Amino acid sequence: MMTKIVIIGATGSVGRVARQMFLEKTNDELTLFSRRPDRLKPVDSTREIAVSGDVMNASELDKVISGQDVVFASLTGNLGKMARAIVESMKRVGVNRLIFITSMGIYNEIPASVGSSGNLRSNPVLQTYRDAADVIEASGLDYTIIRPGWFDSSNDTDYEIIGLLTKKSNPNTSHQRGIRIAFIFKNYFSLLSLASISFLILGGRVPQYWKKSVRNLPL
User: Fold this and answer.
1) What is the dihedral sign for C-alpha 53, 55, 56, 57?
2) 5 and 22 Cβ atoms separated by less than 8 Å
3) Secondary structure of residue 119 in the 3-state scheme
């Protein structure tokens, strides 16, 4: 079934690779939201729409999110404010599914064997990523927060999922409302790996994948 996805931050490094993955692996319709849509060319007019706008402009955000099935956001800047703007817009227009890229280390979950200096307690630059995660987790939306570490542009997929938390809106049901995902890897986490994980999430194939990959480490 075709899914309508809006990529907020479509010209960023993550947004570009995710866009290409969705185009190659799905028949989904993509709305590409960016302050510089001229950088998105060429655009496949049969499946893509490029929209100019600012995530902090409520009317522009409402217009681009309205009618979508999924919001995929990968941004830089004041992520707490941006996440709040996206959450509020989604609630206004009735869209419930959010995938948001933050950063590994915001819950001080990186073990010493990997390098705990990458945790928030030692790296205050991560505070804005934590602020965004806090906003999203309090939103009541059906969200996935993905927390990768350092990126490179290689084609490797040498990573391991180290944590998973599923929140339930009703403890008496199996309804999944919110999920956090983190990654541990030998060197750098490729953008291709991140796009692949996002593709798996949207395709509903993640649960089986997690059964093979999740380790019982702190989230």
Assistant:
1) positive
2) yes
3) coil
pTM: 0.79
Three-class secondary structure of residue 147 per DSSP: strand
pLDDT of 105 reads: 82
Look up residue 137 and give its two tokens. Answer: 């987790």
Measure Cα distances from 50 to 7, 42, 71 in Å. 10, 10, 15
Q: Where are the alpha helices (DSSP H) in the chain?
A: 13-25, 58-65, 79-93, 127-137, 191-203, 206-213
**Span 56-61, mean pLDDT?**
98
Spatial contact of 178 and 166, defined as CB atoms under 8 Å apart? yes
Residue 52 three-state SS = strand
CA distance 49 to 31: 5
Residue that the structure tokens 């906003």 belong to: 135
Q: How far is Cα 200 from Cα 178, in angstroms, rounded to an integer?
A: 16
Q: If you write DSSP's letter for every residue of 122-162 in order, what string do you get?
A: G-GGGHHHHHHHHHHHTS-SEEEEEE---EE--S---EEEE
12, amino acid identity: G
